[in-house]
Design a protein that fits this description.
The chain is an alpha+beta fold and 794 residues long. The protein is built from 30 helices and 20 strands. The termini are far apart.
Length: 794
C-alpha cells in the first residue's frame, strides 16, 4: 500500500510520467498508475521513482543559500530536467458581453452561457462529468452533453500522427487547480500547452461567437513549482542569501517590495515570492500581454476571431447591428436576432424555465440551425436547492408559499412591479484578494483558496436573500405581453452573476442596503467558519485559515450606537459593494456603470481605513472589513458625469469650513447604524415636509441646518428619545466637548489627504432612503398581521 496522494500531486505525477512529447509510452500502464494512486493501491514498478519524487517535492526544505539550491538540482536530475505545462485562461471583457443587450433575458442568457463554459465545458476537457442533483431542474445526467464537448475537442484538436495521442488523452481531472469565476488554471503535459490554450479560446468563440477570451501557457521545471522561477544556469539565480544583502536596493524593492529590517520578515517576503505564486504571476503577465494583442512565436494574437456577415442589405439585429438570422414572433417585442443574440435569448429563456424554449425548437425544425444550449443550471435553481438543503432558510424565505409555484422574473418590469417601481443594483467585489494570493505558495493552497472564496461568495448571497426577501405577488402587469399573470408569485430578485469574488444582483430597493450589509458580514463569517452551511447533506468545509488575531478595527467607525458595539474585523478577506437605487426602467447598461463606480468608491474607502502610512493608528483604528457605497436616483434622476464629480461639484460646499452633504461610503457597522437612524425617523413620524426642509437647509451652512433641525425635532410628539440615541448620539457627538452638532459630523481621520478636515452629514441619505424603509416597515407589519390571522385560523 502507498500513502494516498493529493489530487494535484497525482496530476503532476501524470505529467512527469507522460513525458515532454505527444506520445505516451506505456499508455495502459500510465492509466493503471493513475487509478492506483486514486484508489490507494500498489503502484506499478515502472513509475514508483516518479511518484516518490513528487511526494518529496512538497516536503523539500527551503534552501537558505544558492549552494543548497544547486545541490537540490544535482541530487535528482528529474527535478531539474523534467518539465510540465501550466495553462491559465478565461473570458475577458465580461461586462461588455453580458450587458451588450438591455433586456433581462439576454443578460441572464449571456451570464449563464459563460458560466456553462467555465463550470462545465472546460472541466469536461479533463474528463470531469458534473454530478447530477435530482433536486435541480435539469436533465437526468450530463453524460450526453459532456460526450458532445469531448467530441468537439477531439474533432478540433486531433492526433498529429498515428503514434501520437490526442489532447483529450493527455488531460485528466487531477490536473485542474481551479475552474471558477470565469477562469481556469491547470497543469498539462508539456507538449500540449499550446493546444490546451487554443482549445480554451476556441471553445468560448465557438459557443458565444462574440465574447472575448484569452489563454496562455508555459512549461516549467518540476523544482520551479516549489521554488519559483529559476535560471537555466542555476548559478545566475538571485537567491535568498543575496536578497538578504541587497533587499534595500531600489531595483530589488521594485521586484520584491519594501520590507522591515527583520530577518524573519525578509525571509518570509522572499519565500512568498519564490514559490508557485511566481509561476502564476508570469502567466498573468503573459495573459495581459496576449489580451492586448501581443504575438508569440507559436500562436497568432487572435487565434479564432468570429466571422460575421456584413452585407449592406441584410436585416440587422437590435443590439449591435449584426446580421439578423431570425424574426422571433413568439417573444415579447418580436425581435430580429443575430445568431449571437439568439443564443443569449435561448439560454436566458432556458435558464428561466429549465427547458428548451418552444420558439427555439420550432426555429431549429424550420431551419438548419443545430446549436444546442446544453444543460443550464440557473442561479435561481441553485438558490432553490440551497433552500431545500437548509430548512430554516426555506421556512424564513418561503413562509407559507409553495416553492414549486414561485416563478423567475421574466423582465425588469416584473421586478419593478413588485418593488413599487424602484429596484437596486448591487455590485460587490472582494478586498485584499491580490494581497492574500501573493502569499499562496503551492498549487494545493491555490485550489483550496479558490473553492473557499467561491463558496463564501455564493452562500453569502443566498443567505442574505433568504434572510431579507420573500416571494412577491405581481400586480399591474399587462397580461397581453407577459407569460405571467397578475396574482402570480415571483422571486423578487435576479442574480446576474456570482463569480469567484464578483457579485452582480438586482433586488427590491426597500431591502437593498440590508442585503448588501448581510452579504459582507456573511462572507467574512463563512470564511471564519462562524456561519455553518449545509451542502449536499453535509456541512461545508472551509479549508484555508483566514483569521488574523491582529485585525481589530473597532474604533474605525463614525457610528457609536449605545446598544450595539462594533465587532472585531478579524477576517483577512472582505467584500465591498456598490448599491444603486433607481427606477426599474433606468437603462441597465447605464445603471451597471454607475454601480461599478460605487463599488470602486467603496473599495477605495476600505483601503483608506487600513491607515498603512499612519504610524499613530493602532490595530483598533485599522479596519479590514467590508464597506458599502450607495446612491439613490430619486431626487437626482440623472448623473451626466461620474458620481465622484457629481458629489464634488453638487454636494460639496465651502461655507467658512468645507461641508459635504453626504457621508457615503460606509463600513458595515456604520450602515447598520444608518438603517437604525432612518427607522428612528420613521418611529418618530417625522413630517415629510420638514425632512425635505432640513435637507435644503444643509446647503446654507452648519448653523442654519443645526438650528432648524433642533427646532423641528423639539416639536415632535413621539420618538424624540429614540432619535437622540440612534441619530444624534450615535453619529453627531462633538469631538472637542460634550455636546453634539446634529445633523453634522466632523471628519479628521485622514491627515494625509489634501482636504483632511471637513463636516459631513448622513441626513441627505436618510431622506433619500426614508420612503423605501418606510414601505419596508409597512410591508413587514402587513405580513406579520397576515401570519397572525393565518395562525389563529389554524
Amino acid at each position: 500500500m502507498t500513502e494516498k496522494m493529493h489530487p494535484i500531486s497525482i496530476g503532476i505525477a501524470w505529467c512527469l510520467a507522460w513525458g515532454e512529447t505527444r506520445k505516451a509510452e506505456n499508455w495502459e500502464l500510465l492509466q493503471q498508475t493513475r487509478q492506483a494512486l486514486i484508489e490507494d493501491r500498489e503502484l506499478p514498478q515502472n513509475f514508483k521513482s516518479i511518484i516518490e519524487e513528487v511526494k518529496k517535492l512538497d516536503n523539500l526544505e527551503f534552501p537558505q543559500t544558492l549552494d543548497k539550491l544547486k545541490n537540490l538540482t544535482e541530487t535528482c536530475s528529474q527535478r531539474w530536467e523534467s518539465k510540465i505545462g501550466l495553462v491559465y485562461g478565461g473570458v475577458t471583457k465580461v461586462k461588455q458581453y453580458v450587458f451588450e443587450a438591455a433586456t433581462l433575458p439576454d443578460i441572464r442568457g449571456a451570464s449563464s452561457l459563460l458560466d456553462r463554459i467555465n463550470l462545465i465545458d472546460l472541466p469536461t476537457f479533463f474528463g470531469v462529468i458534473p454530478k447530477h442533483n435530482p433536486e435541480l431542474n435539469t436533465q437526468k445526467n450530463y453524460n450526453a452533453q459532456c460526450s458532445s464537448v469531448r467530441k468537439w475537442l477531439n474533432d478540433n484538436f486531433p492526433q498529429h500522427s498515428e503514434n501520437e495521442k490526442k489532447l483529450s488523452d493527455a488531460l485528466i481531472e487531477e490536473l485542474i487547480i481551479y475552474s471558477t469565476g470565469g477562469n481556469i488554471l491547470a497543469f498539462c503535459p508539456a507538449a500540449f500547452v499550446d493546444d490546451l490554450a487554443n482549445a480554451i479560446e476556441k471553445r468560448y468563440t465557438h459557443e458565444t461567437l462574440t465574447a472575448n477570451s484569452c489563454a496562455v501557457g508555459d512549461r516549467f521545471k518540476l523544482l520551479e513549482i516549489q521554488f519559483g522561477l529559476l535560471r537555466d544556469n542555476i548559478e545566475d539565480t538571485f537567491w535568498l542569501d543575496k536578497y538578504k544583502k541587497d533587499y534595500k536596493n531600489p531595483i530589488v524593492e521594485g521586484c520584491f517590495g519594501k520590507v522591515e529590517s527583520d530577518s524573519q520578515v525578509i525571509e518570509n517576503n522572499f519565500r512568498d515570492h519564490k514559490s508557485f505564486n511566481e509561476l502564476t504571476t508570469k502567466l498573468a503577465i503573459a495573459f495581459n500581454q496576449r489580451r492586448s494583442g501581443n504575438e508569440t512565436p507559436n500562436r497568432p494574437s487572435r487565434r479564432y476571431p468570429p466571422m460575421l456577415e456584413t452585407h449592406p442589405y441584410l436585416r440587422r439585429d437590435e443590439v449591435e447591428k449584426r446580421s439578423a438570422i431570425a424574426h422571433i414572433t413568439q417573444v415579447t417585442g418580436q425581435p430580429y436576432l443575430s445568431e449571437a443574440s439568439l443564443r443569449k435569448r435561448c439560454i436566458g429563456d432556458r435558464a428561466k424555465k429549465g427547458e428548451l424554449p418552444s420558439w427555439y425548437r420550432d426555429l431549429c425544425q424550420n431551419t438548419n440551425l443545430d446549436w444546442q444550449p446544453g444543460i443550464i443550471e440557473s442561479w435561481t435553481n441553485k438558490f432553490e436547492l440551497f433552500l431545500k438543503q437548509n430548512p430554516d432558510k426555506h421556512q424564513k424565505y418561503c413562509r407559507n408559499y409553495n416553492l414549486e409555484n414561485i416563478e423567475t422574473s421574466p423582465s425588469l418590469t416584473h421586478l419593478g412591479k413588485v418593488s413599487n417601481g424602484f429596484i437596486a443594483y448591487i455590485y460587490a467585489d472582494g478586498n485584499n484578494m491580490g494581497g492574500y494570493i501573493q502569499k499562496i505558495r503551492t498549487p494545493q493552497e491555490y485550489q483550496n483558496f479558490s473553492a473557499d472564496v467561491e463558496n463564501a461568495t455564493k452562500y453569502s448571497v443566498f443567505h442574505a436573500l433568504a434572510n431579507h426577501l420573500h416571494p412577491r405577488q405581481l400586480q399591474g402587469i399587462d397580461e397581453s405581453t407577459s407569460r405571467l399573470n397578475n396574482g402570480d408569485f415571483i422571486h423578487p430578485f435576479e442574480i446576474i452573476t456570482i463569480g469567484e469574488d464578483d457579485i452582480i444582483l438586482i433586488v427590491p430597493a426597500d431591502k437593498a442596503l440590508e442585503i448588501a450589509k448581510d452579504i459582507g458580514e456573511n462572507f467574512e463569517n463563512i470564511l471564519l467558519d462562524n456561519l455553518k452551511i449545509q451542502e449536499h447533506g453535509k456541512q461545508l468545509e472551509i479549508k484555508g485559515n483566514y483569521f488574523d488575531e491582529y485585525y481589530d478595527g473597532r474604533k474605525a467607525h463614525r457610528c457609536h450606537q449605545n446598544n450595539k458595539s462594533p465587532e472585531k474585523s478579524n477576517c483577512k478577506l472582505s467584500i465591498s459593494s456598490g448599491v444603486l437605487i433607481a427606477a426599474y426602467n433606468t437603462p441597465i447598461y447605464y445603471a451597471e456603470n454607475l454601480t461599478k463606480q460605487l463599488m470602486k468608491s467603496a473599495k477605495d474607502y476600505a483601503k483608506k481605513l487600513h491607515f498603512k502610512n499612519d504610524d499613530k493608528k493602532t490595530n483598533e483604528d485599522k479596519y479590514y472589513g467590508g464597506t458599502v457605497d450607495f446612491f439613490t436616483m430619486k431626487s437626482v434622476t440623472m448623473v451626466s458625469s461620474s458620481i465622484k464629480d457629481f458629489r464634488d461639484n453638487a454636494l460639496t460646499k465651502n461655507q467658512g469650513a468645507e461641508i459635504k452633504l453626504y457621508a457615503a461610503p460606509y463600513t458595515l457597522h456604520e450602515l447598520d447604524g444608518l438603517i437604525a437612524s432612518i427607522k428612528a425617523l420613521i418611529a418618530a413620524d417625522f413630517p415629510k415636509s420638514q425632512l425635505y426642509q432640513i435637507r435644503d437647509f444643509l446647503a446654507k451652512g452648519r448653523r442654519t441646518a443645526i438650528l432648524n433641525y433642533c427646532y423641528f425635532r423639539s416639536r415632535l410628539k413621539q420618538g424624540q428619545t429614540q432619535l437622540r440615541e440612534d441619530f444624534e448620539k450615535a453619529w453627531c457627538d462633538a469631538k472637542t466637548n460634550g455636546g453634539n452638532i446634529a445633523p453634522w459630523m466632523y471628519e479628521n481621520r485622514f491627515p494625509e489627504e489634501k482636504h483632511n478636515k471637513y463636516y459631513e452629514t448622513i441626513w441627505r441619505e436618510m431622506v433619500d432612503l426614508y420612503e423605501f424603509l418606510k414601505e419596508d416597515e409597512e410591508n413587514n407589519e402587513s405580513e406579520q398581521t397576515a401570519t397572525n390571522i393565518s395562525n389563529t385560523s389554524k
